Amino acid sequence: MKIILADALTIAAKDLRNELKSKQTSGMMIIFSSLVILIFSFAFDPTNNTVKAIIPGLIWVITIFSGLLGLNRSFISEQENDSLTGLKVAPIDPSSIFLGKVVANLVLVTIVQMLSIPILFLLFDYKFHGDLIWFLLIVLTATIGFIVIGTFLAALAANAKNSEMLLPVLLLPLLSPLMIGAVQATKIVLEQEGITDAISWLQLMAAYDLLFFAACFFLFEYLMEGS
Amino acid sequence: MLELKEITKIIGDKIILRNFSLALAPGESVAVIGPNGAGKSTFFKLAAGLMQPTSGEILLNGEQIKKKTHLLKKRIGYLGHESFLYSALTPLENLRFYGKLYKVKNIEEKGMELLKAVGLHYFKDIPIRSFSRGMIQRLAIARVLLTEPDFLLLDEPHTGLDQEAVSLLNLLIKERQEKGIAILLISHDFEQVIQVCERVLILNKGRVVEDKSIDHQRGLMPFKNWYEAAVSGK
Ligand SMILES: Nc1ncnc2c1ncn2[C@@H]1O[C@H](COP(=O)(O)OP(=O)(O)OP(=O)(O)O)[C@@H](O)[C@H]1O
Ligand SMILES: [Mg+2]
């Protein structure tokens, strides 16, 4: 287990170093999320109080759609020089490839969130009064679930033609329960309603995360297995 | 000892390898030659654990290669048609990454040594995106040697290399062989086959049609004639 973790970190570090050098994916993700925020801030009048109601939804729209850009790249980038085969013949457990990719994608998406959510609040003139800890916990839990399923499906889709189109088609339906929970819980925290409701959504999301993490973790080696 | 016992590989409804058997002892060097599409690379993929045979078994030191035995893969160094390298990273970063996955000790030292051996140490800090084909092939060779395998599977390692690199590579292979490492070499370049290997298999349409030791005295022309006769089916 310790070795799986160490290998996963090696792979994640390699991916992040790659990204740090090219800044291809992260650049696209940040530009995309900024554009979404900008367009929405023009489309809706931020001074109108009812507009605040769309903020929770917007947070997740940004996360999912900019995240998709990163997820698409994470396995496609391994096809250059067929380096995924290099990982397959290496003496590592296939699960560590999955774990490494999850960590790298999570870091990328979290960075985009850390930049875009404050900008979102700023442009929509929203003063954050809610409980920051709960807010972060909710965002993190839902993001982990999204990345776990997304990474698994990205690996699945990478073998197919038109994988860029296949990934959202597979991913979005699977994510809907998680996203309903995420939007509801975020709304509760941002509007400072009873935190107990948010906690039950959080529990639901955590259960969803665990379930899918276990399933993806164990199924991943079948994805990596050759014919 | 690497043993393949009566391997048959069928993809779709196409038989790619039929009843293929081979035993490779430490320090042995065997060339696998044959026309395009004969199944040579498929044989390597099976031996490296990238594919599972349809029937038959592959044993490495008496243990079967399966997904659970991924630690056995450390024994095998596989150089494929592709380089498996990351083009945004520098040669040293690439070696460092694979070194870590293979749990190589003294990665920095060995990495530098190998880069010198393949003549890339002046380029060690340049992303390999800008490298020429031969330079990438040199680095791919350094990558396989870094992990210190007991069995080297080299699939057309001489492609794209210049004269100097070819003799460097032959030297590196010989060195490894003297240390008791077993070599399997796929090549269309018979000159190198005769230089490096002691035994040769001819694969044609998924079947072994010839298996004999190379007579180094006889030179290139008789070897070519023998190959042509074997492949054309006399
Ligand atoms: N994944 C696959 N699916 C279907 N057929 C395949 C697959 N891989 C290989 N083949 C077929 O198997 C045969 C042998 O392929 P292989 O790559 O082993 O040839 P080779 O001997 O290495 O040829 P070359 O000298 O050109 O490298 C070919 O006819 C090829 O079409
Ligand atoms: Mg081949």
TrEMBL record, chain B:
Quote any Pfam family the record assigns.
ABC_tran
GO MF term (any one): transmembrane transporter activity
Q: Does the keyword ATP-binding apply?
A: yes
| Keywords (A to Z) from UniProt | ATP-binding, Cytochrome c-type biogenesis, Nucleotide-binding, Transport
Q: Which SMART domains does the entry link to?
A: AAA (SM00382)
Q: Which GO terms describe its biological process?
A: cytochrome complex assembly
Q: Per its UniProt record, what SUPFAM superfamilies does this chain match?
A: P-loop containing nucleoside triphosphate hydrolases
- All copies of the ABC transporter domain together span 2-230
Identify this protein by name: Heme ABC exporter ATP-binding protein CcmA
Q: Which organism is it from?
A: Cytobacillus praedii
| Organism placement in taxonomy | Bacteria, Bacillati, Bacillota, Bacilli, Bacillales
